[in-house]
Amino acid sequence: MFISKKILKINKGDYSGNIVKIAIGTIALGVTVMLMSIFIVNGFKNQIEKKIAGFVGHVRISNFDYNESWETSPIEIEDECIDNILNIKYVDAVNAYALKAGILKTREEFEGIVFKGVGEDFDFKNFSGNIVSGQFPAYSDTIINDSVVISKIVADKLSLSVNDKVDGYFLNNESTRVRRFVVAAIYESGFGDYDKMFVVSDINVIRQLNNWSENQSNGYEIYLHSISDIDIASKEILPLLPYNCKLQSVYEINPQVFDWLSLQDVNVVVLLSIMGIVCVITIISVLLIIIIERTSMIGILKSLGMNNKDMRKIFLVKAAYIVTIGIVIGNAIALIVSYLQIKFKIISLAQESYYVNSVPVEINLLQMFTVDIATFIVCMLIVIIPTALITKVSPISTIRYE
């Protein structure tokens, strides 16, 4: 350890001094890239999963028929069944929903949309992040509320703002029914297919238009405490349902989005592999240079009786120092950049392509420590190879050369 500490110091004239600095910078950059790729993919997954869940829930119960239109046949599930679902430990909330195709019309413009009716049991916290202006209306199971929440895309097309009135036209049994609504809030989810289509309204309005009873709906949306519990929760929910109901997870409802997210995992694996290889090659190259530079020292120490095992430990400590400093600097850079992105949204994105308007970042300390430990272990295992050159150094040859 005494000798290791001596050679850790970078003195003027040491050829390896600048090489060590470059190595530390390279490892720091590699760790930064690895951590940022993980943090960004985490952010994408959580942001998009939350946005989708705000529309369809984590698990959806609907009628088990082959009707592919928005207006599927209604179902009626007893309160006891809903209570049993709520008693499952993975379930956070359950709300009924109803769908009705229609047209929103102002004096100058009109737009075809789908009304999604929700009630007072609607889990608003999963949708609140999408509201850009106004307030989500308080729906009740006993009083019909004509307030609606429209998307920014629809609001811009129809030149509507909060508190404006708009007429809704619905086709029902070959007759057209008209109803006036008030815009209570405007949302923007970033999912063009949803934003162009859905208007959130009172479920009692849809029931009234469809001549349904107060217990009928198109289905139920189930929100879980964690999206990772979908598979196990679905196994417990399915036996509780009536024979005419089917269960779909958010993965089955939006497969294309989650396939895209899966591709991001592949990108992370590729980045981790490339940066890991860069770090390994860097530390091997630096250690070889240091060993060559310290050849005379190795010969003198061998002539004084130091064995190869202890000699190799000297340079392993040097390698451990370089790797550790690089990892610490990489962590600091990744955390600072992540904080700045979270706080100030420095890097923006095209929302229509990426579903979010800025690069989402979510810091996971456990993943960060895992990357750090893995990087350190791999680098230290690999640098054992170049230290084998020490066994080839002859004390007689090095001393004679001096």
Account of the 3D structure:
Helix 9 runs parallel beside helix 13. Strands 1, 2, 3, 4, 5, 6, 7, 8, 9 and 10 form a ten-stranded mixed sheet that branches. The protein is an alpha+beta fold and 402 residues long. It folds into two domains: 2-50 and 258-401, no CATH class; 65-242, no CATH class. The radius of gyration is 31 Å and the shape is elongated. The model has no long low-confidence stretch (mean pLDDT 90). Helices cover 50% and strands 19% of the residues.
Helix content: 40-55%
| Helix/strand order | HHEHEEEEHEEHEHEHEHHHHHHH
Query: Rg to the nearest angstrom?
Result: 31 Å
Class based on secondary structure composition and strand pairing? alpha+beta
Strand content: 15-25%
What is the first-to-last residue Cα distance? 25 Å
For the report, how would you describe the main beta sheet?
10 strands, mixed
Supply the number of structural domains: 2
Give the mean pLDDT: 90
List keywords for this structure.
elongated; alpha+beta; 50% helix; 10-stranded mixed β-sheet
Task: Outline the fold blueprint.
Layout: H1 2-8, H2 15-56, E1 59-63, H3 79-86, E2 91-105, E3 110-118, E4 131-134, E5 147-151, H4 152-158, E6 165-172, E7 175-187, H5 192-195, E8 198-202, H6 203-210, E9 219-224, H7 230-237, E10 245-249, H8 250-253, H9 255-293, H10 295-303, H11 308-344, H12 351-354, H13 365-382, H14 395-401
Parallel strand pairs: 3-8, 5-7
Antiparallel strand pairs: 1-9, 1-10, 2-3, 2-6, 2-9, 4-7, 6-7
Helix pairs in contact: 1-11, 2-9, 2-11, 2-13, 9-11, 9-13, 10-14, 11-13
